[in-house]
Each structure stands twice: as structure tokens, then as C-alpha cells.
């Protein structure tokens, strides 16, 4: 059951890029971020009307990184990049965890981890080759959004965050409020969404945000960043699948190779360090 909960977040998040491409491309990414976060937070607070146990300064920092800044960067990236590319850049989270542990905690990775990190970096270079003509702002936004998630995940491992439903609700509510002045400044006053996009926004609010963020926060604390880094690989798989099958996106062979290298490096990174394939090893009775 814990792994089923953990899968909810990357599966639902992987649908974001196709949703934007098919139904929300005419809406401002800033106001889409508001419509995604604030209603989800209000809905969850109605379900669990409690004050948070985490101090307001730390809660505000999490709300800014996980919701306010993250949603803004995510939707700018989603509007500027193909879903397959955006999803794969988001899946570099384990690599960023490795770099932060090295730089901040002074935990130098072993040769295996260093080689896999370089392998993943090589995949990113293939994916972002100049002939791909990818939007540099979109690429920077996606990598920045993933870095914010990595920082906030480290903090939640150390802090006593209390009830995860309450934590998720307040993060979404506060983050949604933070997004309003930015959206107003960047895109003008809000316009009510048309009836044709209401089903898409309902999916964003309920499944893609409320359920997915609760599942991610709960799983990050209970399963740890190592396992969740592996589970996060489902995100680009869903994004690529929907982008190619539904949206009609196409990638050249070099980009497909880059995606494959990144996913392979992330998958190998999660293999147990003591795994040895030795057919001659004697099994003790």
C-alpha cells in the first residue's frame, strides 16, 4: 500500500504537460498555477480544518518552495517545452539530491555514484543538444523547480511537520495566496475559466494537486528520498507516453537517446550497492 500511495504523485504529475498542451494552452500559466493551488488548499482545509504544528516561518518557506515558486516555474516550463523533455528534466531529482548532499553535507559520493551522475549529465546534454531548438527559459525553469523540490524535501526530513494532510493543505493555501500578486502583475486581472477547461482544472485541483501533493509529502517522509527518487521515474514515463500518443509530439533519435541515458542512470543509481551478480556464489543452507 505505501508504494501505491507513492506512485500517485508521479503518475498524476506526469499528466500535467499533456493537459497544458491540449486544454490549457490559451490560459496564462501564472493564473493556471493559482487556480491549481488555492482551490486545492481550501478544499483540503475544509476536510481537515486545523492549524499547522510546524512554525509559520518554516511553513511559509515550504509553501514558497513547493508551491509558490515551484508552480510558477513548472507551468512556464510546461508551456515552453515538449512534455517529454519537461518530464525528463523533472526526473533529475535524484541527481540533484546527490549534488546537494555532496555540497552541503560534505558527503562525497563514491565512484559508482559519480560515474552515474556523469552519465545522467551526458543524457541531459544529449537531450538539450543545440539542434533540438529547445527554449532555454523553459529548461532553466524546469531545473530550478526540481532544485526547489530537492531543498524542501531535505528540510521535511529534518523538521517535525506533524499531520501531512494539514501540512499539504496549508502549503497549498499559502502558496496559492503567494501566486496571486505575481499572476496579477505578469498577466493582468484574473479571467474566469471557460466551461470547456473546467474538467481539466478539476483534474488539476483534485488529482494533480491535492491528492498528488499529499501522497508525495507522505511518501517522502515515510519511504525516504532514495526510494522516492526511483518512484519519480514514473513521471517522465507518463509524460513521454502521453506526449507521443495523445499530443502528437515527436523527438529526434538523439533526444530519445538522451532520455534513455537519463532514465538508465537514475535506475542504476537505485540498485543496492551490495548487489553482485555472481553465478558461482555458494548458497548457504
UniProtKB/TrEMBL annotation:
Residues 4-128, 138-269 form the EamA domain. It is a multi-pass membrane protein. Pfam families: EamA. Its main location: membrane. InterPro entries: AA-Vitamin_Transporters (IPR050638), EamA_dom (IPR000620), EmrE-like (IPR037185). It is found in: Membrane. Keywords: Membrane, Transmembrane, Transmembrane helix. The keyword Transmembrane applies. The chain crosses the membrane at residues 28-47, 59-79, 85-104, 111-128, 134-152, 164-186, 192-215, 227-247, 253-271. Belongs to the EamA transporter family. This is EamA family transporter.
Amino acid at each position: 500500500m505505501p508504494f501505491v500511495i507513492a506512485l500517485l504523485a508521479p503518475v498524476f504529475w506526469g499528466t500535467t504537460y499533456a493537459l497544458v498542451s491540449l486544454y490549457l494552452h490559451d490560459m496564462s500559466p501564472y493564473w493556471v498555477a493559482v487556480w491549481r493551488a488555492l482551490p486545492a488548499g481550501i478544499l483540503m482545509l475544509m476536510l481537515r480544518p486545523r492549524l499547522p504544528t510546524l512554525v509559520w516561518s518554516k511553513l511559509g518557506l515550504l509553501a514558497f518552495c513547493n508551491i509558490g515558486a515551484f508552480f510558477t516555474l513548472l507551468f512556464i516550463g510546461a508551456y515552453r517545452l515538449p512534455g517529454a523533455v519537461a518530464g525528463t528534466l523533472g526526473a533529475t531529482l535524484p541527481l540533484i539530491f546527490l549534488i546537494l548532499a555532496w555540497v552541503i553535507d560534505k558527503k562525497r559520493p563514491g565512484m559508482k555514484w559519480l560515474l552515474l551522475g556523469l552519465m545522467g549529465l551526458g543524457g541531459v546534454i544529449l537531450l538539450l543538444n543545440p539542434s533540438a531548438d529547445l527554449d532555454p527559459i523553459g529548461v532553466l525553469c524546469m531545473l530550478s523547480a526540481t532544485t526547489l523540490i530537492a531543498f524542501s524535501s531535505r528540510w521535511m526530513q529534518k523538521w517535525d511537520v506533524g499531520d501531512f494532510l494539514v501540512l499539504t493543505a496549508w502549503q497549498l493555501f499559502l502558496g496559492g495566496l503567494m501566486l496571486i500578486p505575481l499572476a496579477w502583475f505578469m498577466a493582468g486581472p484574473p479571467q474566469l475559466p471557460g466551461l470547456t477547461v473546467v474538467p481539466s482544472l478539476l483534474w488539476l485541483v483534485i488529482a494533480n494537486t491535492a491528492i498528488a501533493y499529499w501522497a508525495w509529502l507522505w511518501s517522502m517522509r515515510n519511504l525516504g528520498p532514495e526510494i522516492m527518487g526511483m518512484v519519480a521515474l514514473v513521471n517522465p514515463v507518463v509524460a513521454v507516453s502521453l506526449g507521443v500518443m495523445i499530443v502528437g509530439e515527436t523527438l529526434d533519435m538523439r533526444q530519445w537517446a538522451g532520455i534513455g541515458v537519463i532514465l538508465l542512470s537514475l535506475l542504476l543509481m537505485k540498485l543496492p550497492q551490495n548487489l553482485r551478480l555472481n553465478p558461482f556464489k555458494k548458497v548457504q543452507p
